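Budget justification note: compute hours in this period were largely spent on complex prediction jobs such as the one shown. Inputs:
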Amino acid sequence: MPQSDYVIEVDNLTKAYGKQEVLRGIDLKVTRGTMLALLGPNGAGKTTTVRILSTLLKYDGGTVKVEGYDVTDQADKVRSVIGLTGQSAAVDELLTGRENLVMMGRLYRLTADSAKARAQELLEEFDLLKAADRPAKTYSGGMRRRLDLAVSLIATPPVIFLDEPTTGLDPRSRLVMWDIIKKLMEKGTTILLTTQYLEEADHLADQIVVIDGGKVIAQGTAKQLKAKVGNDRLELVFKNTADFNAAVEALGKEVGDRNEKEFSLTVLIRDTNTDVKRTLETLAKHQIAIASMAIHKPTLDDVFLSLTGKQKQATEEDK
Amino acid sequence: MAAELVFEHKSKLWFTINDSLLMIKRSSRHIIRNTDQLLGAFFQPIMFLVLFASVFGGSISKALPPGITYINYLMAGIIVQTVAFGSTTTALSICGDLQKGIVDRFRSLPMGNLAVLNGHIVSDLFRNAISTFVMLIAGLVIGFRSHASLLNWLEIAGILILFTLAFSWLAAIVGILAKSVEAVQWLTFVLIFPLTFASTAFVPPVGMNSVLRAFAVNQPITQVVEAVRALILGTPIGNHAWLAVVWSLGLMVVAIPVASWLFRRRTTN
Ligand SMILES: Nc1ncnc2c1ncn2[C@@H]1O[C@H](COP(=O)(O)OP(=O)(O)OP(=O)(O)O)[C@@H](O)[C@H]1O
Ligand SMILES: [Mg+2]
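Corresponding output:
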């Protein structure tokens, strides 16, 4: 059936709403059984991309294929191999969890018996059994998200789109969702996930594409991206100016940012094992006391500050 | 351990019908679960019936042909009015669906997207049937009597079903175009209120001025009301029955393609 090695293939995709260009030439390629995370800030064009991929939205230029099927010309074929979990939970509030699942199963062409059996299986798997026969409007945000995801898995589609599946979830619910997504990946599902959190992309994805303003501004593995963005930083805070100055002297070149008023400085960490230890040993050797310390991972803020900053400069130079 | 999935292997037509049946089941469940709305479907018609009968009954009965009581005259009008206003619910459900992600979900499935509209429209037929039934019972309690035969009642049902479908499809257009539930509410009110009141639903046209009367006696609601009324009262039905049917079918011929086209357009961009 599929001729291409890539399950999802997007080539030079463009889309405008009126005069506003929302996607300006996006390329994406996702290999079978892997996950690509589309990382970007609000308004980057993540949802737009997902909606085009799931046949919900027309686009202006480029080619978009899922399992080798064109999303415009062969929309029905595409729909039979994909599952979509949109940004806002799309479950029927007045139906129970079970009714939602069975109905969707039937719409995916499952037989009545098969849909019921599959619904039961998913309710168990997603820890929704107790709430199965309550209307979905009584569900908590996390439960609703889980039901939403369960619904898109009802016919075990080989390709899944997840649009910000953990936005708005508390940390525990987020971990639960991550576990569910990991299980999906173990089963060989091809996944395209969008997120605003580098941490999430880092944790789950094989490949990350960062978009901003409708353009791909960086891509690679989490490691490659972080290397591009910056390293972990060790932040050290001292009790007074004397200690602070002594530390600056002792650490020399390794000091990155510094704030004299707060007696704090940061040290870049390239290798967690050796760099932290060496820094602390240096301070101990000079008998400098530390008031507090913390390790900062590069955050999405850092990614965007560094990547989008560059992009802004470039576009300004264009003018 | 995972159960093996079994898919249906049926014709395209079978799937099209089955999709609509699934959507009808869904919308019908909404009607039952949406208790506030359901209570409205019970009590609003009763309230109208009792109010109209007692407020207007005294003065209007003088203008009626001898031997016809106002409650017997009013019944047809109240039923048609209830059905006409009931179509607001269709518009509300469709507008509500479009505002939530659920239509996106349906559209990412291999199903025909008009099934969603069919679901709301057919299930509204059920709700209207409930309302009408409740009203007839309430009418009997406050003195409504009819000598219509079973065949007459079937004719009445047929005319009302066509009319309900026609109005629901019109309401679907409003539901698709409206940007919010509030907009639906006032839009349908502004459209339906004059149509039902500038008709012979509640009063004979004799007292209306000539412009209003010309409108009132020729518009579709009057045709439907007069046809149902003649069947209830056993009076000559004239052209009303077939005009009612032609109006309803005509409205559907226009409204169904327009609603379908608008729905498709609204959900693809
Ligand atoms: N229907 C629409 N009409 C006009 N502009 C739109 C429409 N939908 C989206 N946009 C615009 O397109 C841009 C991209 O939106 P999109 O929803 O794809 O962003 P996103 O990356 O998903 O953001 P978020 O993280 O907030 O979900 C935004 O500037 C948005 O305002
Ligand atoms: Mg989005």
